[in-house]
Amino acid sequence: MSAVPSSATPSTGAAPWYAGLGDFLKGEADAWLFVLRVALSFFITGWLAMRMGLPQPGTAMMTTIIVMHRQSGMVLAKGFYRVLGTLVGAAAALAIVALFPQQREPLLLVMALWIGACAAGATLHRNFKSYAFVLAGYTAAIIALPVISTHPGQVFDSAVARISEVMLGLVVSAVISDTVLPVRLRDTLRAAVRGQYANFLEFVREAVQGELPRERMEQAHLRVVRDAVTLEDLRSSVIFEDPEARARSLHIQQFNQRFMAASTSFQSLHHLINRLMRMDNTDAAQSLVALYQPLGNALQSAASLAPEALATRIHAVHQALPERAARLREGLADRAQAEDFEVGTGLLLRFTHELEAYVQARAQLLDRVVASGGVEQVHFVRGNDHAGAGLAFIRTTVTMLLLGAFWIATGWPMGANAMLLATIFSGLFATVPNAARLTVRMSGGYLLGLVAGYACEFEVLTRLDGYALLVAGILPFFIVGPYLTTRPKLAALGLGYAMGFVNILALTNPMVFDPQHFFNDSLSQLTALAAALVSFMLLPSVAGSSWLRRRQMAALRAQVRLAAQGPLPGLRHRFESMNSDLVHQIVVHTTPGSEDSRRLLAWALAVNETGRALIHLRHDVAREPLSGPLHQQVDAAVAALADFFQQPSRHAWWRADQQLRQASDAAREEAGQRGVARQVLRHLRLVRLAMVDDHSVMATYIVATDPTLEELPRAH
User: Fold this and answer.
1) How far apart are the C-alpha atoms of 64 and 75, rounded to whole Å?
2) Which of 86-100, 346-360, 524-538, 542-556 is least confident?
3) Is 459 helix (H, G, I), strand (E, B) or coil?
């Protein structure tokens, strides 16, 4: 199936001038509704803070800027983790000041270590869990730094005030985003579930019926990874917005895990058939194609069927497979081809079982009554690199120490302000690729915000009296920032503008107009931005770097060792989710269609296929023990495979191949006596077929004899 060339497409004439106008107007309406919600949150928070007599209403108002998001679920999730970060940061500030109430140097040292540790923690988490670590770092700085030089005894009052201001901003933002023309994240989640389900079923149907080009088959794995990670990210946020989604959280996790399991088995089956075709085992390959034809028929019109009806169809196919496979196997006289066919039969049986479970999980999501009993407890495990966290710790700690030393050495009154803002930017961008470039963009917006803040404060607000007029005076300047954040290319500029504008206004009750303080404060904030920029230039973020990609690729290959040695309970879920997360982390920083992208895809498929085979082999052996000699042979083969994927080399490949052959021979001898030996043989043969495939990523390492004795060219 190929696309029709554009040159062959008949001309339909020029599009009318109003084409796309509807989409533009809808986009503008959504953008201005978002601006409305942010403005309401901002000004209502400021009014309440002043009515309540909070010392720094600007802090509460800044909170509304930091948590702003177009979807209400994201605001609630961000607010939840901001509460956690604020409380932890407040506790840390109290503890640090209590330890060093009159010793500024050790206090700044411990504070810098705390902020660095929080920045490191932020790199090890996703979504707003990362944000909680950032908050824990700079909340401690916000509470402690302003009081340590003047009144350390007021740190508790400072903590109470900051917590009160932050909580006020969070509550107002949550209420406004959830009540004023809200954009529900649950709708996005439901669309993601529907799309994942429909796309996967159609993908399987087209592939089984031979309607899918090979290049689309190869790219399907990346789509599976993206869909799985996206669904987990949405689920972890929507539970704050929607009680129903919260009640169905376990079902959504189970649905996602079954999706990953079924897609991995199908990829293995597809690659097995392709290998058999290339190895001239066409009889076995054609028999497997004939074996799964009823599945393609069962998936006809799958999108229009109720999941229960489709699950019934798939179950019928699964039940008929053994008898159909036995008939097809009788036509294979060659032992090797018969064994290859049995390997494929086992994969197809596994896939149809997993596909049925996936469809049933979809049916559970559609049930009106949520039954949590009997739902398997599964978790999406992330793959993290602790070296990147260590670099974030060093960069942030050193930046804070240098700014603290400069503050102590110069006695600069605004030194605390500079450290505060540097803390915020160092934490916020610790997990961002090209952090220096983003800091430059933010700095440009921040500078514009400072200029707008000066014009607003000294040219407009000095002529007004009362909160209503204050809102009227600030609003034209303020809305620029939130509106720019709705434009993807200008989002960083808009966020910087909003933060700079709100930060420099520093609204109080009563308002104080002090040009000298304004310029000193502006200088401290620009100094903080410059310090953060320099730190990111000297010690750039590893996110998206080739160094980190190499480490993540090594971690991906090391997943085979996890499959070979990890505890069996929950191992399959942990293996699949970590693989998906690692691949997703790498692919988002890889150019589509590039050599790096193709190599990543090839290794990801090899790791998935080998790891799943080892996990199923270990489960089979756990259910029915092997004989002593065979168990030793299988253990040696599994260990050799893990060593090869951990550190690929020609010798490691040769050793793994030797061990696989020996274990396969031993399993073949016992296959007639023990049913488990026959299962083990299938798993070992599947892995070895992948190892000797000269079109796979492992082809570089294929040798005929031990390369330590004789160096031979690559086999073809």
Assistant:
1) 9
2) 542-556
3) helix
